[in-house]
Amino acid sequence: MSGTIRISLRAGERVYVNGAVIRVDRKTTLEFLNNVVFLLEQHVMQEEDATTALRKLYFTVQKMLITPAAGFSARQEFYAQYLELITEHHEQEAMVSALDEIRRLVNIGRNFEALKRIRRLCEAEDAQLGITPAVSNQRRRQAQARQAHPQEGGNGAAESAAAGSGPAAPATADTATVDAGSTPVVRTRRRSRSRRRDGAIGAAAATGHGAAS
Questions:
Q1: Containing domain of residue 48, as a range?
Q2: The pTM is what?
Q3: Spatial separation of the C-alpha atoms in residues 191 and 168, rounded to whole Å
Q4: Would you say residue 148 lies in a domain?
Q5: From CA 176, how far away is CA 98, in angstroms rounded?
Q6: Who's near 100: CB < 8 A, 6+ residues apart?
Q7: pLDDT of 13 over the 70 cut
Q8: Number of domains the chain is built from
Q9: For 150-155, what is the mean pLDDT?
């Protein structure tokens, strides 16, 4: 082990670590000292938000990450959804290439990287369709929970993941493995989402294909 990684969490925020769910009751920083896969709460998609084929693919790979016990059935779902998307976009070379790369990552167990690739495609699809990105709904849900339970200092945020919607606010880090490098500090911060129109999903597919996670 030649490096560690630290993440900063707000009170009531959860993080999914190697299939386990950890919630903190106060503002804190976690430091991972060995190999780990983690998923920040604001990037967790709720099942009711999986309303398009791409979102369903995202939800399925997410399930592989945070519910390892469902791995086999989730993998079967993934391949069925992958074939559906390949059939739908068979004339879009960049999209097919991106989907093939996502399948390759899942095949070798790099689900967190596959999730990142799918998120890029989902963001482009959301912009094209003019809908609220599903993974950003956590911001509104957490705010609603804090308003409903102000005495808890934000502890209700973790339980509020099933209602509301909000503007795009993906964090700069979502899932990661720690195995090398210096000691970075990961803090969630806003990143603007450009509005793309025709060809947005294809552009995201071409950009994301082959990129490092």
A1: 5-134+165-208
A2: 0.63
A3: 8
A4: no
A5: 20
A6: none
A7: yes
A8: 1
A9: 46
- How far apart are alpha carbons 166 and 145 in whole angstroms? 14
Q: Is residue 159 part of a domain?
A: no
Is residue 98 included in any domain, yes or no?
yes
How far is 45 from 41, CA to CA, in rounded Å?
9
Closest CA to 85 of 117, 42, 133: 117
174 with 39: CB under 8 angstroms? Answer: yes
Spatial contact of 194 and 119, defined as CB atoms under 8 Å apart:
no
pLDDT, mean of residues 154-167: 36
Query: What is the reported pLDDT for 99?
Result: 96
SS (HEC) of 101-164? HHHHHHHCCCHHHHHHHHHHHHHHHHHHHCCCCHHHHHHHHHHHHHHHCHHHCCHHHHHHCCCC
Q: Is residue 37 part of a domain?
A: yes
Are 157 and 13 contacting, i.e. CB atoms less than 8 angstroms apart?
Answer: yes
The span from the CA of 158 to the CA of 57, in Å, is 23
- Using the structure block, give the residue that is written with the tokens 């804090």: 146
Q: Residue written as tokens 């430091």? A: 31
Q: Are 178 and 4 in contact (CB under 8 A)?
A: yes
Calculate the alpha carbon distances from 140 to 66, 107, 124, 164, 206 in Å: 22, 34, 21, 6, 31
pLDDT at 135 over 80: no
